[in-house]
Amino acid sequence: MEFSELLKKRRSCRAFQDTPVTQEQLQSILEAGQWAPSPLNQQPFQFIAVTDSTVKAQIQKTGIEAKQTVLDNSGPAWAGKYPMNFIGDCPLIVVVVYDPTKGGLGSYFEQPHGALQAASACIQNMMLQATDIGLDSLWFTFFSPLTLKPILEIPEELDIAGAIMIGKPAMEGKAPPRKSPKVYKDRFNTDA
Ligand SMILES: Cc1cc2nc3c(=O)[nH]c(=O)nc-3n(C[C@H](O)[C@H](O)[C@H](O)COP(=O)(O)O)c2cc1C
Hints:
Elements: H1 3-9, H2 23-34, E1 45-50, H3 53-72, H4 85-89, E2 92-98, H5 114-132, E3 136-140, H6 145-152, E4 159-167
Antiparallel strand pairs: 1-2, 2-4, 3-4
The structure holds flavin mononucleotide.
Flavin mononucleotide is lined by residues 11-12, 14, 138-142, 173, 176.
């Protein structure tokens, strides 16, 4: 597939078939993630590949709880309609964790998010690879890390960049529209 076609074909999926993701597919996705750039090439990310239905149900529960927290705190009403049930049905969830202390030199000059930036690049690589091999994905963050970390036994010092749902889509997703790039000439807010 042409790269520009791949970019536009990747779609966030919220309804999956129950077809398992093969080990070979998972390996190709993880390898794509590993080729992401990272500060000082520290590759500060690690992965938990979740296929166990009990664990998936626990992740789904953290989503339901987060949704309730949004509603209890007068958050947007649409959040109440967010369908958490697809989480339990998703064949594979790759939880991407990272070490926030491995962000390169940035913490010396007010750029403390290098490790999260690297984990984000890693996730994007993984999602594009999933698309390339005929799978869909979702970068899912609708949970409290305080709840999810003990469930997955993630060490205190690591953070979660996202739970990436991966599988064959149950239906073809519609692409949400994109804005035109907002670009200035030489200085912010100066017309190009
Ligand atoms: C950091 C991040 C967190 C996201 N969290 C969620 C989420 O919790 N649930 C969800 O359904 N989509 C989530 N998304 C997906 C966005 O809603 C989606 O990318 C956006 O609507 C554009 O759609 P597309 O990915 O199909 O192009 C997240 C995306 C990013 C980058």
